[in-house]
Amino acid sequence: MIIPDEDKALRYLQQISYYRLSAYFLPYQLIKDKFNTGVNFNQILDIYRFDRELRLLVFDCIERIEIAIRSQMNQILMRNYSDAHWQDNTDVFKPPYETKYCDIIDPYTDFQRIIKKSCDSKHPEVFIKHYKEKYHTPKNPPSWMCVELLTIGEISRLYVGLKQNKDKQKIADFFG
Question: With contact defined as beta carbons under 8 Å apart, do 106 and 124 qualify?
Fold first, then answer.
C-alpha cells in the first residue's frame, strides 16, 4: 500500500483503529494481507469517510422515522381511547399469545415492565424523574412520556401487540 503521509496515516489509525479500518482493505486485496498494486491509503480513507457519512445520514433518517412513528402511535391511541394513559388499559392490547417458537408474548405486561424498569431506575430519564417527584397518581407517567422509553424494536412489538387493527391502520395510514 502506498502511504503518502505516514504521520496522517498514524493519526487515523490511532483514531479509527487498525482493526476497524482493515475491513476497508479487503476490496483492495486479491491475496489476503497483500495489497493490489497502486493502492493508496487515501483511497481507503475516502471509502471509510464515505461509509461514515452514509451511516450518519441513514441513522438520521431512522431517527426521524422512529420519532414520527412514536408520535403518531401515541396521538392516535390517545384519540381513540380518549386517555393520556392508554398504555395502562389492557383493552388496547392483544391478550397474551404464543408464537410459533412457543414463546408467550404479553404486549400489555411487556410495556408495563419497560415503564416500571425506567421508573425504578437509579438514574431515570429527566422527564420520568420530574413526573415521579411531582405526581403520585396515576402510578405511570402519561403515554407521551412512556413511548419515549421504547427502542425502535419495542415500538415495533408494541404496534404488533395492539388489539385493534383499526388502530394499526390509522398509524400506518399516516405514513401512506
Answer: no
Residues 102 and 22 in one domain: no
Residue 170 domain boundaries = 58-174
Does residue 85 sit within a domain? yes
Cell digits for 66?
422512529
Give the model confidence (pLDDT) of 63-117 as tens digits.
Answer: 999 999 999 999 999 999 999 999 999 999 999 999 889 999 999 999 999 999 9
Q: Where are the beta strands (DSSP E) in the chain?
A: 97-98, 104-105
How far the first Cα of the chain sits from its last, in Å, is 50
For cell 414520527, what's the residue? 68
- Domain assignment present for 1: no
